[in-house]
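Please, structure for the following, as tokens.
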Amino acid sequence: MNTLGITLPLWLACNEISSRLLRRLVRQWQDVRQWIIFFHDDIITQPDVELEHRVMCKTSILEYLGLLQHSWVMAWSRHIPADKGIMRVISSLWLLEIKDPLFSSWSSTYTQFHHQRDSAVFNSAILIAHELNIKIDWANIMEVFRNDYDYFAQTAVAHLRYELSQDPPDLECIAWDVHIISALALTANLHLALVKQGSLFICLDVLNLIVQNSWEGENRKYAARCVVNATLYLKEGLEDLDGVPLVLTLLSMNIIPVLLKCEQHLPPADNDPAHNQPGQLLGRMLASYTIYRSVLKRVIPLIEQVQEAGEDRHLQKGSSLYEDWHRLKDTVRERTRMLRPNYPTLHAVQHCHNERCTRVDPLGSFRRCGGCLHSFYCSRECQRLDWQQGKHKAYCQRIQERYVRTDGQMFMISCGDFRFFESVIIAELRRHQDRIVAHKLKVNVVEFDFTKGVTDIVFDSLRLDPKPFKILCPCEQFSHDRWESLLVRAKRSQQQLVLVRAYIPGGMSRKILLRGYELRRVLNNDWRVENKLVFPHRLCLTFTCCGRPSDTRLEGRDGKFLRESRISRHG
């Protein structure tokens, strides 16, 4: 079996015999399959068997299954991802490499004839399943890891961490391990487990390794794969969990200069979507999160350090990374002005979330709901009424389910961030004030989407499209219903008003701000006096959400969210 794994690729490269050899490979696969399972079940996993024989059998299986990496044998390899027995063997050997050092491919017990690595075989099976749209039975594989998601994730991260510790590093195997982590993250429970094991930060370590070295030959190809898969995984991590804490941590690890150094290691085709991953993370995601004052204050010194060190001079003018870098700088430069002490700011307020209450007080006066962390009430009585007679109970419980599902990964917006949101919104309104005035409407409706790095804006006071940025889940429908009722009530005002609905980034769920201002104050940028702290002259409501409802991830063994525990606290 060991010899076949090494020599078959050479024979299959010969056109004269390749087709005939491939037919025999497929025809005799069942016999070989039985030997593979026998080697695994009766020799490799049996501690009483002599170690040399166990290691030899493991090596032979890996050499033969290493054929999965060759496109010539697709007629055979396409059956592997759906084969429960073989996938259990592959994942078991992958675990064994970490679990027992004697079976590690870096161990002295491995011979000089050993060519294949456990990660290469596991990664190839995953790639074939993706390319041919074959469903892998993850529940079957989870049994190898005692149905413990943390154990599975720990194994994946340990493989990558171990490869990074080698000198010199095997860049090809690092590329496999990064891709395996990215693939496993498509399973929701595994994704969270991977994050808890530090997968996001070790992927940043991979990027650091790539940009701090120069690579030649085949390693250039593997370096490009590492950059693409690592940045894609970081981007997805920010999108699928609560983004602000992760952004702050990545900024503390100097992610901006690392991303800027990735350009020379990217795939050569500039129109390749993979080529744009570092730029999207830089100019789309990080730029969008600068609407948070806490994030902006961390980004400013990093940009200054990059410019002082000249770390952006190598960027190719006109490249996607060059454009995204300048998008980030422009956004930060504009919002930095709002941090100056003399910048005119409005008197930040809070609106009681009880729909029957119209009370508005200065920011920080109200109690925050301990369940959803985003609703505020002027009194215990209003909170009780909204829970018992209003719609907050169903909304809040969905948010709490998200808190459980993500193991506490939910960010609470600070008062400083709330105040800064107002400054950004007012600045955008003043930029378009001529258009607002030209409409000559009593109630001006403006919608912003701040989640994409570049601000999208919709003026739709006639409500031709009441949902310009879509409704992604029942939580957003809840906030939309409240928005519609507020628009009706605002028409009773004698003053000209501007009502704003703004979407801001929040990772797994965007956050929704409902704001209302007197038009004259917006036009004059005069917030020195607040005579009317009542709706509709001032409105300030904030909503979060439980996460995307139609997630494409495989969520648990039965395709459902993990619901073993549930938080029911409130108040």
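Strands lie at 349-351, 360-362, 367-368, 376-377, 443-449, 456-459, 497-504, 511-518, 539-543. The two ends are 65 Å apart (CA to CA).
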